[in-house]
Amino acid sequence: MDPAQEFSELYRRQYDTVLHYALRRCDAETARDVTAETFLVAWRRRSEIPAEPGEELPWLYGVARRVLANAQRSRRRAERVTARLGQERGEKFSPDAASVFAEHTRLKHALASLSQRDQEALRLVGWEGLDLASAALAMGCSQSAMAVRLHRARRRLEHALGTEWDTREPSLASQSRPRTSNLEK
Question: Which domains does the chain have, with CATH numbers?
Answer without folding.
Answer: 1-93 (1.10.1740), 94-185 (1.10.10.10)
